[in-house]
């Protein structure tokens, strides 16, 4: 008699648990979508009522970054530019000119040409200000955007317009891009002691370390 009633009771309890789980999942999903609606509403209000015109892509990227950074210290969002830069750092080589640059007054300032690269061979010097790339002004570009314009497949030409101290007029330098290898390992010997410096880790690091040793 007990067995006769036990099976229906167990089945009923299992069915109730399943229904409760489904209801709980539905409630969580509904709450999540309400929060998404709130996020969209905030975005629309910012776009319509903020005192200045906003960069919508930057606002959305900031929202994504906020979601990921709330998870743990190691999760982050890589935008297209950052991702490409990370790929270059990992690969350790890219098609380009071979110059270290920074931004100054909206122009690209050459910190130094890398030895034995297209830029060095073409006569680019430290302190040169690049004001145009292929006839297009660099003002208004970020440093990464300017770098992306100067990079390209090996063998392709590029013309940079340069301002140089001591030269009155801007002038053009034509350069043919080549494969630039990021040198991550440097070494020298001082007083019979060898020193090795690893500035970054990429695919070239292991070979560079073996050669230095």
Verbal overview:
It is a single chain. By secondary structure, the protein is an alpha+beta fold. The protein has 3 domains: 2-69; 95-181, PDZ domain (Pdz3 Domain, Roll), CATH 2.30.42; 183-213, no CATH class. 45% of the residues lie in helices and 25% in strands. The chain contains 6 helices and 10 strands; from the N terminus they run αααβββαββαβββββα. It has helices at 2-49, 56-69, 80-91, 118-122, 143-150, 205-212; strands at 93-96, 99-104, 107-113, 129-133, 136-137, 157-163, 171-176, 178-181, 185-190, 193-198. The strands form 3 sheets. Strands 2, 3, 4, 5, 6 and 7 form a 6-stranded antiparallel beta sheet that branches. Strands 1-8 form a two-stranded antiparallel ribbon. A hairpin with a 7-residue loop joins strand 6 and strand 7 (171-176). It is flat, with a radius of gyration of 29 Å.
């Amino acid at each position: 008699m007990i067995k006769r009633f036990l099976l229906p009771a167990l089945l009923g309890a299992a069915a109730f648990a399943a229904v409760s789980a489904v209801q709980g999942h539905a409630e969580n999903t509904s709450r999540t979508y309400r929060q998404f609606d709130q996020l969209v509403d905030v975005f629309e209000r910012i776009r319509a009522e903020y005192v200045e015109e906003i960069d919508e892509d930057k606002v959305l990227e900031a929202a994504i970054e906020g979601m990921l950074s709330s998870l743990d210290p190691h999760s982050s969002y890589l935008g297209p530019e950052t991702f490409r830069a990370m790929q270059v750092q990992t690969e350790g080589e890219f098609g380009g000119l071979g110059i270290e640059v920074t931004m100054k007054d909206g122009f690209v300032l050459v910190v130094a040409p890398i030895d034995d690269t297209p830029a060095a061979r073409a006569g680019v010097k430290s302190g040169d200000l690049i004001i145009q790339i292929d006839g297009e002004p660099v003002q208004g570009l970020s440093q990464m955007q300017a770098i992306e314009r100067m990079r390209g497949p090996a063998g392709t030409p590029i013309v940079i317009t340069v301002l140089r101290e001591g030269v009155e007029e801007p002038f053009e330098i034509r350069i043919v891009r080549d494969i630039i290898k990021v040198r991550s390992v440097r070494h020298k010997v001082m007083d019979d002691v060898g020193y090795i410096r690893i500035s970054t880790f990429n695919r070239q690091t292991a070979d560079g370390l073996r050669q230095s040793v």
